[in-house]
Amino acid sequence: MNNVEFAVFGIIEKIDGGIPLVLKKGNFQGGEKWKLPGGRPVKRDDSKREALKRKVFKKIKIVVIPGEVIFKKAIFKEKIVGHDFIVMKADYSYGEPIAMKNEIKKVELFSREEIESMIENGEILGNHAAALGKFFG
User: Fold this and answer.
1) 62 in the Ramachandran plot: left (φ > 0), alpha (ψ -120 to 50) or beta?
2) Which of 48, 54, 87, 137 would you call most buried, defined as having the most Cβ atoms within 10 angstroms of its Cβ?
3) Which residues, including other chains, have CB under 8 Å from residue 90's CB and lie 6 or more apart?
4) What is the dihedral of CA 23, 96, 109, 42, to 10 degrees?
5) Which tens digit of pLDDT belongs to each residue from 29-47?
6) Whole-prediction pTM
């Protein structure tokens, strides 16, 4: 893809034990925060779906089948190029979720109730929490 001005993340369903979230090694204001797996594409990614598949596998070693976009928001930050924040549903295909990248401290599976509590307690990054809230309805 020539235009890589987006980041894509997945809410991964159909995996025993819950929805995987990753804890990135902390450089967030307010300490460590959980987030959805995913990230920015590279130029060789042909689509948002391909980018999500590659990023999830690269970061937590599971294969997913991306589905529909369920959340999209334009992000504009001072000194950072603006981009779209996109969250897609994705079905789990196979693999054991483990943290594969140095920037990922750990990956864990959480139930809906646990995630809702984490959102309430501010333990999940803002846009990721908003996407999860919309997903749960």
Assistant:
1) beta
2) 87
3) 10, 11, 12, 13, 52, 56, 64, 65, 66, 67
4) 40
5) 667 899 999 998 888 888 9
6) 0.89
